[in-house]
Amino acid sequence: MKAFIQLFHFGYHQAMSCIFPVAIFGTLALTSIIEIPFLHRYDAILLILLGVQYVMYLSGLETLDEIKVICVFHVIGLALELYKVWMGSWSYPEEAYTKLFGVPLYSGFMYASVASFMCQIWRRLRMDMTGWPGGASSFLLGGAIYLNFFTHHFIPDFRWWLTALVFIVFWKTWIIYRVRTKTYRMPLTIAFLIVGFFIWAAENIATFFNGWKYPDQHETWHLVSFSKISSWFLLVIISVIIVAQLKYVKAARATKEPR
Fold it and tell me: Residues with Cβ < 8 Å from 209, sequence gap 6 or more?
């Protein structure tokens, strides 16, 4: 019975942390069925998601600091989307007023939703880490991963080398999380893989509802390549590095403040 209660509380916090990602996929689904008069679908998605963020902030579901992190990820994601669409990796076929060089502005929220989940679950499960490699090595690795998303189009793809480096850099790092009064822990790299898999599953939902399309999905929809899990695995690492460092910086500032 105690195990069931623990699992229930863990599932509850996971579900609450997924509110913004669920809102995104729910919006994609609804707007693919319901047409809003005088408004392009991508424009409607952007307005709805901005409204969801505002409501989450007003209700206290997200803090101001978390909103700031989400905005950072929106910019990071939008920059990557602009480049990838330009390179023909995928496309947004529908019309919209809020498209920039073929990329709808709502697309940055797809990346921001990962940051939203990370911030929420960190706070709700009172997470901490042991064996964190430090700011210099983690930021250098995160920067190299992000840069590889751009450079692999014209130089060799170092994805698997970077993946191996992730296991080396974070092999001592464990996530500490708390459910009610009990403390658990998990290797950080395993958490990367789990979250990466679920993002890949969510990506299949998004492409099914025409959130975007890969070149081989224009004729008919089918599963996104399993190789994309490795891309999301690496993207999750960037998310965790940024969120973790911001949490540590904030904690360090709090301890220095006079009481």
Answer: 25, 28, 29, 32
Nearest one of 110, 116, 118, 37 to 80, comparing CA atoms: 110
Encode the chain (259 residues) as per-residue pLDDT tens digits: 778 888 888 888 888 888 888 888 888 888 888 888 888 999 999 999 999 999 999 998 888 888 888 888 888 888 888 988 888 887 888 888 999 888 999 888 888 888 888 888 888 888 888 888 876 778 888 888 888 888 888 888 888 888 888 888 888 888 888 998 889 898 888 887 887 787 778 777 777 777 666 776 667 777 777 777 777 777 778 777 777 766 665 655 555 555 4
For the full predicted model, state whether its pTM sits above 0.85. no
